[in-house]
UniProtKB/TrEMBL annotation:
One of its GO terms (cellular component) is plasma membrane. This is Iron ABC transporter. It comes from Candidatus Taenaricola geysiri. One of its GO terms (molecular function) is transmembrane transporter activity. Keywords: Cell membrane, Membrane, Transmembrane, Transmembrane helix, Transport.
Amino acid sequence: MNKKIILLLLLVLFLGIVIIISLFCGVDNSDPSQAAVIIWQLRLPRVLLALLVGAGLASAGAVFQALLRNSLAEPYTLGVSSGAALGASLGMLFRLSSIYTTVFAFIGSLLTIFLVYTIAARKRFSNSSLILGGVTLGFLFSSIVLLIIAMVRQEGISNAVIWLMGDLSSASPQAIFLTAVFVSGGILAFFLLGRDVDLICLGEEKAMHIGLDVETIKKILFFIASLVTAACVSASGIIGFVGLIIPHIGRFMFGPKHRVLFIAVSLLGAGFLILCDTIARTVALPLELPVGVITGIFGGIFFLGLLIKAKKW
């Protein structure tokens, strides 16, 4: 059997194991009816959202790193997270329900995508214009978010801070459905365009000589990856490092062929975020940590290990 197929099957097994652990970890078996409520009404929606967000951020991160040719690019490079944070903060400022706060976050992400693309269009969608536009808007929106948090009433500050650090506890059916639509559609599009990404990575001039419309493909992929990121951030807050470290691990395991890579990082990202959320939920009982704290710790350890291995101090 092909080595890559075996690795993919192992990733599916890994995902299944972490799902089971997350569903049943800490459940009291003395009351079966209460345990069933905890598993099906509280744990399962949270696991589903973690699966979708992890897969979405990891696959979008792989797209950004490939097209921008930057190993440190991630789904938040174009400022989508800051736009979502601004929208969510406005929702909290007006004391809206969690559903409307999610909608505000998604609208904020879409507006950021529109602004970044408008700025980049003046420079013919060059990589530098996309990155600079995203970073500039990110700083601007982050400053506005801090201003809004200062204006939010005391009881709303903790909710805003937790959301900004990543939070999967409010996994509503609406959020899961919205995220599922964008993430599944996005991953399918990434897979179908995977061979085009391979050609672009070999050299844009070579790809154009073959007959590939490089600029159109890049615009489509950037836009889809941004939509996937917007859906993930609006549902879960800002969860760092998933879209940064998972593509690196995926390339180490599967190589540079992007069709296989997009499937692999989706499975790996889903399992990784479910595992991190389980740790965040159980490591400091009765307190619950934001999942972004755990992913940040793993991300820092990962890159520190890379630095030590590369001996580039």
